[in-house]
Amino acid sequence: MKPAEATGAGVIAVAAPAKINLYLHLLGRRDDGYHLLDSLIVFLDFADTVSVRLADGLSLGLSGPSAPALEGTGDNLVLDAARALAEAGGCKAGAAIELTKRVPVAAGLGGGSADAAATLLALSTLWRLDLPHARLAEIALGLGADVPVCLDSRPAFVGGIGEELEPAPSLPPVWVTLVNPGKALATKDVFAAHGGGFTRPGRFNASLKDAGALANQLRPLGNGLTAAALRLAPGIGEVLEAIEATEGCLLARMSGSGATCFGLYNDEAGATAAAGAIRRAHPDWRLEVARLIAGRDDLD
Fold first, then answer.
1. What is the pTM of this model?
2. Active-site choice (48, 115, 146, 152)
3. Residue 115 annotated to the active site
4. Contact 36, 26 (CB under 8 A)
5. What would the pLDDT profile of 202-260 be if each residue is shown by its tens digit?
6. For residue 241, what are the domain limits?
7. Which of 105, 127, 156 is the last residue of a domain?
């Protein structure tokens, strides 16, 4: 699916790629309680889809394997994004929004943020708004710290509380096995459980020839929220051990605030074999195999 695609009957569809944090360092904490971050965020070809068409008022329909987790929760970031965009653009048109939800909820994969960003892009096209990208980024930041980076879905170093974006160096082809043990972790709860201890930035500008070189670059770095997440969901440790035990795993790490963890592999065959081995041992865990993308134009 292309980044923004007209699918007929006046429908605009936009992909909402999941993200992973290849590393996540906590640098400090502001007086208002927000943590200062340094992270390398990359995106996958595993994605939700936001589809919109003109309608009276705003409505949201849900479908897809992860939709039940959102049902009955009332408003979410998709409708928040639609309202914020309408206000910023002075738009009185409505829209029927359909969210096809594949990415697990509260899983450290940025699904809600990606959905909000895709909503901004889809409705900007549907409503024929001419807001500059910088204005969209401002609206995105008002919705959540991870939303701005999801607008372009390109690899980026993220700083501040999420508003400072710096393009990452070109990354080699990498395949990923995602493993989610079925445990939802609220980001705010994981940050609240962080007992302190801050680290230095981990940014690099090295030219990396392959997935192995990327893993070596990342190995001394880490995820500063892992210990906090383990206190809330000890089973994450078992997930990391299962990934590390697979043949060909270059690096195993938790993404974001968890509970999803990932392994890096040289190719699709290795990632698929790893997923199969883990699935046989843990049939109740959710697994996905995906590849890193260079941006929205890299989506099939």
1. 0.93
2. 146
3. no
4. yes
5. 999 998 999 999 999 999 999 999 999 999 999 999 999 999 999 999 999 999 999 99
6. 175-298
7. 156
